[in-house]
Amino acid sequence: MRKIRLATHVHSSWSYDGSWSLDRLAAAFTRRRYRVVLMAEHSQTFSAAKWLEYREACEQASTPDMLLVPGLEYADADDVLHLPVWGEVPFLGRMPAPGAVAEAVSQAGGIAVLAHPWRRDAWRRIDPAWMAMLSAVEVWNRKYDGWAPRRAACDLAGAAGLPPFVSLDFHTRRQFFPLAMATVLPGDAVTVEAVYEALRGGRCRPELLGIPATRFGTGGLGAATRAAEQARRTAARAVRRIRG
């Protein structure tokens, strides 16, 4: 048995706003000591045929050291609430209703995660009826939350009784960050099916540099990371003003 690290919620050039090829992503995340990448392409430009083609492309781009797991990030009708989905789930449409996604994924034995709930106040659209069918809640999204987890998202996950999930929401080099979902698998059993089973069974834990990720949202460590994130945002705004 050995511990492996999963990079999650990653977009490639198959997404309308991505630019990295699958091969390039496989190499980049291997160098950063991940063993699995959970892809999450935007559903808006996919079709059933493209989904099948994409699954084959992920298999072809995987290597002995890197497993690319195909996935789609489903958006609702006006692109507010997003649900990344993994598993043996058929294509569900370009912008299906969240309840329909959650029900279909649950029936297929797949995995659905509530993504970046504070982006555009997506959390306000949560319906407890379909929330209960999800597998996890993103409490730390590198793209939107920066260097610290979102405490309100941690509270939301706890109130719903769902595990915390961390993700890169990778589109560009700026989203590289040592966040990971970690699990333990037999050394010779790093397969798509084994990863699905670990996710379904709640055997993946969020971490940063080997430390439980939720610790960065509370106590002294949480205060430090929030201060660092605030300083980063202030510096970024200053740079934008200078450039603009």
Helices and strands in order, then pairings?
Elements: E1 2-10, H1 22-31, E2 36-39, E3 41-42, H2 48-61, E4 67-69, E5 72-75, E6 82-86, H3 98-108, E7 111-114, H4 128-131, E8 136-141, H5 142-145, H6 151-160, E9 164-167, E10 179-185, H7 192-200, E11 205-208, E12 211-212, H8 219-243
Parallel strand pairs: 1-2, 2-4, 3-5, 7-8, 8-9
Antiparallel strand pairs: 1-10, 5-6, 6-7, 10-11, 11-12
List descriptors.
6-stranded mixed beta sheet, globular, TIM Barrel, 244 residues, alpha/beta
Brief summary:
Helix content is 36%, strand content 22%. It is of the alpha/beta class and 244 residues long.
General description of the model:
By secondary structure, the chain is an alpha/beta fold. It is built from 8 helices and 12 strands. The strands form 2 sheets. Strands 4-2-1-10-11-12 form a 6-stranded mixed sheet, with helices on both faces. The longest helix is centred in the last third of the chain and has 25 residues, at 219-243.
Q: Averaging pLDDT over every residue, what do you get? A: 95
CATH class: Alpha Beta
The largest β sheet comes out as:
6 strands, mixed
- For the record, the CATH architecture stands as Alpha-Beta Barrel
Task: Tell me the total number of β-strands.
Answer: 12
Query: What is the overall number of helices?
Result: 8
Give the full name of the CATH homologous superfamily. Metal-dependent hydrolases
CATH topology: TIM Barrel
The residue ranges in which pLDDT falls below 50 over 5 or more consecutive positions are none
